[in-house]
C-alpha cells in the first residue's frame, strides 16, 4: 500500500510538471517567433509606379529635350535566365571545354561580358524580384520563396506593360506567380521536381522556333531555364551532366544570338541578354553568400559593348539590371529601384544622352536617399550636388568640352554608389524592443526548464524580484543595444502583442519565483560544460561556418574517454568483479566507432572552407555505372531490414519481414527511377511517383498490422517500449525514403552507434552523461549527412519526393524530417533506452518528463545565448551570410524538437506501461 501511494504521489507530481513543461515549450516557440519577427521584420514600402512625368525636363533650370535624350534603344529584347549559372561556367568555359559559341563571341567582342554581384539569400524568388524591381530583397524572402506572393512594387515588367510592350514568357513558373497579369503569352514549368533536368528545359526550348521565326507580335521575351540548377541540386557542379547541360544552353544561345544578329542587320534593333539568377555552391546547393553563389555572368548580344579584357570585366549589382533594362526600353525607371545603369550597355550613346541618363538615374536614387533623416550631412549627397553642378556647367558651355565628360560620368557614378550603399544599410530595420523582450522570455525558459519538477511555495517577494529585475533587464538591453529614442520603447510594439508579452512575462515570473535551483556537484550544469563551450563558440562567424568541426572534436573525445575507462577496467579485472570478455568486446566496438567516424566525416564535405574538397559522396557519383552507389544503398537497406527483424516480436517476424522488403524495394526503385542506382533488368521507365505511393501504402499496412498485433488500438495495454519501437521504425522508413541514396547508410550506422554507446554506458547511473552522449550522436550524424549552417545545404529535393504538385505543408514536413532526421532519431533512441523499467520508483511519465526537460534545457540554452550574440552582431559584416542562416536553422530545429517532444509526452504518458505492471 505504501509503495502504491508513493507511485501515485510521483505520478501526480510529474503530471503537474509535464503540464508546466508543455507551457515552457509554448513560451519557447512564442519567444522564437517573437525574436524572428523583430530580427526579420517584413516591411513593404509601397510607392506609386513611375510615369513619364518623372523623367526630368530640365537640369538645374536648364531646359532639355528629354524625348530626344531618353528614348528606346532597341525594339526587341530577349532576356534569358539560366538558373544557377555560376561565373566560372562562362569565365572559365575554355577550361571546362563548354559553351564554345558563347566563349568565342566574348573573345571576339561580339558579346559583352559583365560580372554580376548577387545579394544573399541566393534563392530564385528574391533574385527575380531584384532583377525586375531594382529593390534589395529582404532576407526573410528565403522563407517566402515557397509561397511566391505577387509583386506589388513597381518593376520594369509593369513599366513595359504600361507602355505597350507585348511580353511573352517561358520557363520557371515563379515569374507567373510573381507577375500574374503581365505576360501576353506564357508557358510555365515547375521548379520543384529537381530530379527532372531534361523535360523542364525542353518545355522552354520547344517554343523558340515559333517565337523567333513565325510570331512577330512580341517585343520582350523572357526565358528561364531550370535544368542546370536541378543537376546541381542532385548531382553537384562537378557532374558530367553539367557539361552536357551547358552545351545544350550554348546551342540555345547560338540560335537566339544568330536571330538577333539577323534582326539588327535588317534594321530591327534587338538585344539578347543571358544571365544567371544566382550561382551554385560546390556542393550543388545555393542560398548562402559564397563567391560561387553570389557571382554570376551577364552576357549581352546586339550592343556595341566595351571590349572585353580578360580578368578585368565590368562589375555590376543585380539590382542594376532593372534600371538598365528600363533605360534600354525607354520606359520610366521603376520607382522602387536603387540600381545604377550599366554604362557598358549604353556605350554607343552620345555624351548628351549618357549624361542625361545618369542624371535621371541619380535623381531616382536620390528620391529614396532624401528620405533618410541625416542625408544632407553625408558625402553622397554632396557628390550628387557636385555632379549636377558639373553637368549643368557642361550644358552651358559650347558642348565641345568633351574632356570633362569622363569626370562628370565618374562623379555621377561615385555619388550613386555612395547613396546606394547607405540606402542598403538603412533598409535593415531591427526592432530591438521586440528582440530584447524575446531574449527575456528565452531566459525564463532556461530557468524554468532547470527544475520544473519541484516547486517551492509561492513567495511574493521572489515574484517581485523576478518581475522588477526582468523589466529592468529589458530596459538595460534596450540601452545597450543603442535604442536611444525613448518613445520607441512604447511605439514599436503593437498593443495586443505588448499585452500578450506582458501576460506571458508575468506568468513566467510566477513560476520562476517558485523554481528551486540547486547547483551541486551532480547538477546539470556540470554536465553541460561541452554545451557551454559550444555556446561560446557561436560568437565567432568562423566557428559557426565550421560548426561540424566542434562536434567532430566532442565526439571522438567521448569515444576516447570511454576507451580509456574500459582499458582501465582490463587492468583491474583481477582485483574487481569485471567481465573480461565483455570489456574487451566493448573496447573493440568503441574502436570500430572511431574508425567509422573517420570514414563518415569524409562522407559529405560540409562547412565553408573545405566544402569543395572531394568526398566519398563525390567518389560514389563519379562511377557512371552506379555500381558503388547501388551497393551502398543495398547494404544500407539490408542493414535496416536486419535491424527491423531483430527488434520484432518473434511471433510476427515473418509478416514484418514482408513489409520491410516491400518498403526497402520501393525506396531502391524510387532512386532507380532517377538513375541514381542501377535499375533492375526489364524494369519499365518510371517517374518514381508510383514507387512512393506503394511505399506509403506499405507503411500504412505496417502501422495497422503493428497496432493490431500489439493491441494498441483495442486495449491500450502494450508497453511504451513497443510503441516507441514502432515510431522509431516509421521515422527511419520515412527518412530513408527522403534521404539522398548515399546517405541512407547513415541510418543503420546511427542505430549501431546508439546501441554500442548504450551498452557501454549501461553501468553508468548518471543520466546526464547518457543524455549528452546521445545528444552528441544526433549532432554528429546531422553533419555526416552534409548539413551545415548555410541555407545552400538544405536539400529542397526531399520536400517533393512522390508529389505531383506543390503542397506547402507536406513539402515543409518532408524537408524538416530529412534535415533533422539524425537529431530526432537520437532523441527517440534515448527515449527508448529510458523506457525499459530499471528504476522501480519511477514511472514512465517521469522518465519521459526528465528526458524532455534535459533536451529542452540543452537545446534552448545555446539558442537563448545566441539571440544575444546575434543582436550584438547585427551590424557585423557576415550577419546575413553567417549569423542569420544559423538563427533560422536553430529556430527550426527547436520547433521540430519541441513538437516531437510534445507528441511523445502526450502520447506515451497516458498509456499504461505493460512491462511495469507485470
UniProtKB/TrEMBL annotation:
From the record, give the transmembrane residue ranges: 20-40, 428-451, 463-481, 493-512, 524-544, 550-567, 579-600, 627-648, 655-673, 693-713, 722-739, 806-829, 850-872, 892-910
**GO cellular component terms, A-Z:** endoplasmic reticulum membrane
Organism from which the protein derives: Microctonus aethiopoides
Which CDD domains is this protein grouped with? GPI_EPT_2
The record's annotation in Pfam families points to: Phosphodiest, PIGO_PIGG
Indicate how the chain sits in the lipid bilayer. Answer: Multi-pass membrane protein
Could you identify this protein by its name? GPI ethanolamine phosphate transferase 2 C-terminal domain-containing protein
Question: Which residue range or ranges hold the GPI ethanolamine phosphate transferase 2 C-terminal domain?
Answer: 501-900
Q: Does the keyword Transmembrane helix apply?
A: yes
UniProt-listed Gene3D superfamilies? Alkaline Phosphatase, subunit A
Q: Does the keyword Transmembrane apply?
A: yes
Q: Which UniProt keywords apply?
A: Endoplasmic reticulum, Glycoprotein, GPI-anchor biosynthesis, Membrane, Transferase, Transmembrane, Transmembrane helix
What main location does UniProt list?
Answer: endoplasmic reticulum
Q: Which InterPro entries match?
A: Alkaline_phosphatase_core_sf, Phosphodiest/P_Trfase, PIG-G_N, PIGG/GPI7, PIGG/GPI7_C
- Tell me where on the tree of life, at the top rank, the source sits: Eukaryota
Family membership noted in the UniProt record:
Belongs to the PIGG/PIGN/PIGO family. PIGG subfamily.
Amino acid at each position: 500500500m505504501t509503495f502504491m501511494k508513493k507511485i501515485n504521489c510521483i505520478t501526480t507530481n510529474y503530471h503537474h510538471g509535464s503540464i508546466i513543461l508543455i507551457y515552457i515549450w509554448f513560451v519557447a516557440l512564442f519567444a522564437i517567433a517573437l525574436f524572428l519577427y523583430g530580427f526579420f521584420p517584413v516591411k513593404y514600402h509601397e510607392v506609386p509606379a513611375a510615369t513619364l512625368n518623372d523623367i526630368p525636363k530640365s537640369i538645374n533650370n536648364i531646359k532639355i529635350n528629354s524625348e530626344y535624350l531618353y528614348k528606346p534603344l532597341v525594339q526587341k529584347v530577349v532576356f534569358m535566365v539560366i538558373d544557377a549559372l555560376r561565373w566560372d561556367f562562362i569565365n572559365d568555359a575554355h577550361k571546362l571545354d563548354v559553351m564554345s559559341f558563347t566563349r568565342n563571341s566574348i573573345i571576339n567582342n561580339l558579346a559583352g561580358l559583365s560580372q554580376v554581384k548577387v545579394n544573399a539569400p541566393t534563392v530564385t524568388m528574391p533574385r527575380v524580384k531584384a532583377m525586375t524591381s531594382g529593390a534589395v530583397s529582404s532576407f526573410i524572402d528565403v522563407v517566402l520563396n515557397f509561397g511566391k506572393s505577387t509583386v506589388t512594387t513597381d518593376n520594369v515588367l509593369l513599366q513595359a506593360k504600361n507602355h505597350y510592350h507585348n511580353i511573352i514568357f517561358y520557363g520557371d513558373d515563379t515569374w507567373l506567380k510573381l507577375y500574374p497579369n503581365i505576360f501576353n503569352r506564357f508557358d510555365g514549368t515547375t521548379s520543384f521536381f529537381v530530379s527532372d533536368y531534361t523535360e523542364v528545359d525542353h518545355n522552354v526550348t520547344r517554343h523558340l522556333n515559333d517565337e523567333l521565326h513565325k510570331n512577330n507580335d512580341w517585343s520582350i521575351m523572357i526565358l528561364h531555364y531550370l535544368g542546370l540548377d536541378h543537376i546541381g541540386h542532385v548531382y553537384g557542379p562537378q557532374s558530367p551532366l553539367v557539361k552536357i547541360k551547358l552545351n545544350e544552353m550554348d546551342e540555345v544561345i547560338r540560335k537566339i544570338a544568330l536571330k538577333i544578329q539577323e534582326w539588327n542587320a535588317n534594321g530591327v534593333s534587338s538585344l539578347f541578354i543571358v544571365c544567371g539568377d544566382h550561382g551554385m555552391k560546390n556542393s550543388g546547393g545555393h542560398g548562402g553568400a559564397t563567391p560561387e553563389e553570389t557571382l554570376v555572368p551577364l552576357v549581352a548580344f546586339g550592343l556595341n559593348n566595351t571590349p572585353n579584357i580578360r580578368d578585368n570585366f565590368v562589375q555590376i549589382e543585380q539590382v542594376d539590371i532593372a534600371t538598365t533594362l528600363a533605360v534600354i526600353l525607354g520606359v520610366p525607371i521603376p520607382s522602387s529601384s536603387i540600381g545604377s545603369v550599366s554604362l557598358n550597355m549604353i556605350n554607343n550613346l552620345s555624351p548628351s544622352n549618357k549624361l542625361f541618363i545618369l542624371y535621371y538615374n541619380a535623381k531616382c536614387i536620390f528620391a529614396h536617399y532624401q528620405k533618410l533623416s541625416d542625408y544632407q550631412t553625408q558625402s553622397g549627397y554632396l557628390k550628387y550636388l557636385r555632379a549636377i553642378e558639373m553637368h549643368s556647367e557642361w550644358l552651358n558651355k559650347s558642348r565641345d568640352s568633351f574632356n570633362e565628360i569622363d569626370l562628370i560620368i565618374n562623379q555621377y557614378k561615385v555619388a550613386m554608389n555612395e547613396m546606394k550603399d547607405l540606402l542598403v544599410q538603412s533598409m535593415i530595420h531591427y526592432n530591438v524592443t521586440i528582440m530584447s523582450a524575446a531574449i527575456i522570455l528565452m531566459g525564463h525558459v532556461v530557468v524554468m526548464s532547470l527544475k520544473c519538477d519541484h516547486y517551492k511555495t509561492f513567495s511574493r517577494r521572489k515574484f517581485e524580484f523576478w518581475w522588477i529585475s526582468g523589466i529592468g533587464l529589458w530596459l538595460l538591453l534596450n540601452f545597450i543595444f543603442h535604442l536611444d529614442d525613448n518613445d520607441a520603447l512604447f511605439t514599436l510594439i503593437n498593443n495586443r502583442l505588448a499585452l500578450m508579452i506582458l501576460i506571458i512575462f508575468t506568468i513566467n515570473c510566477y513560476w520562476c519565483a517558485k523554481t528551486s535551483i540547486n547547483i551541486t556537484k551532480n547538477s546539470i550544469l556540470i554536465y553541460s560544460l561541452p554545451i557551454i563551450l559550444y555556446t561560446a563558440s557561436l560568437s565567432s562567424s568562423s566557428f559557426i561556418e565550421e560548426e561540424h568541426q566542434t562536434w567532430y572534436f566532442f565526439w571522438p573525445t567521448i569515444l576516447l574517454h570511454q576507451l580509456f575507462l574500459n582499458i582501465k577496467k582490463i587492468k583491474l579485472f583481477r582485483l574487481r568483479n569485471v567481465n573480461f570478455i565483455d570489456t574487451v568486446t566493448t573496447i573493440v566496438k568503441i574502436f570500430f566507432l572511431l574508425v567509422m567516424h573517420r570514414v563518415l566525416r569524409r562522407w559529405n564535405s560540409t562547412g565553408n572552407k573545405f566544402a569543395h574538397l572531394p568526398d566519398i559522396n563525390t567518389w560514389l557519383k563519379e562511377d557512371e555505372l552506379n555500381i558503388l552507389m547501388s551497393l551502398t544503398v543495398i547494404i544500407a537497406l539490408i542493414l535496416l531490414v536486419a535491424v527491423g527483424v531483430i527488434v520484432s516480436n518473434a511471433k510476427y517476424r515473418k509478416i514484418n519481414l514482408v513489409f520491410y522488403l516491400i518498403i526497402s524495394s520501393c525506396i531502391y526503385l524510387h532512386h532507380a527511377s532517377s538513375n541514381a542506382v542501377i535499375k533492375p533488368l526489364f524494369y519499365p521507365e518510371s517517374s518514381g511517383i508510383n514507387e512512393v505511393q506503394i511505399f506509403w501504402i506499405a507503411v500504412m499496412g505496417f502501422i495497422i498490422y503493428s497496432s493490431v498485433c500489439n493491441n494498441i488500438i483495442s486495449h491500450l495495454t502494450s508497453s511504451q517500449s513497443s510503441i516507441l519501437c514502432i515510431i522509431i521504425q516509421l521515422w527511419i522508413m520515412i527518412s530513408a525514403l527522403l534521404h539522398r541514396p548515399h546517405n541512407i547508410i547513415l541510418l543503420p550506422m546511427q542505430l549501431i552507434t546508439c546501441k554500442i554507446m548504450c551498452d557501454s554506458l549501461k553501468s553508468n547511473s548518471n543520466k546526464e552523461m547518457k543524455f549528452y552522449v546521445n545528444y552528441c550522436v544526433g549532432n554528429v550524424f546531422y553533419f555526416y549527412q552534409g548539413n551545415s549552417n548555410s541555407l545552400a545545404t538544405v536539400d529542397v529535393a526531399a520536400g517533393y519526393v512522390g508529389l505531383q504538385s506543390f503542397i506547402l505543408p507536406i513539402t515543409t514536413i518532408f524537408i524538416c524530417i530529412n534535415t533533422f532526421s539524425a537529431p530526432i532519431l537520437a532523441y527517440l533512441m534515448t527515449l527508448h533506452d529510458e523506457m525499459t523499467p530499471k528504476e522501480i520508483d519511477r514511472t514512465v511519465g517521469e522518465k519521459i518528463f526528465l528526458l524532455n526537460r534535459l533536451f529542452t534545457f540543452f537545446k534552448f540554452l545555446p539558442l537563448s545565448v545566441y539571440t544575444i550574440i546575434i543582436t550584438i552582431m547585427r551590424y557585423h559584416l557576415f550577419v546575413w551570410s553567417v549569423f542569420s542562416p544559423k538563427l533560422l536553422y536553430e529556430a527550426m530545429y527547436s520547433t521540430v524538437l519541441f513538437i516531437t517532444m510534445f507528441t511523445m509526452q502526450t502520447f506515451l504518458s497516458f498509456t499504461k506501461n505493460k512491462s511495469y505492471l507485470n
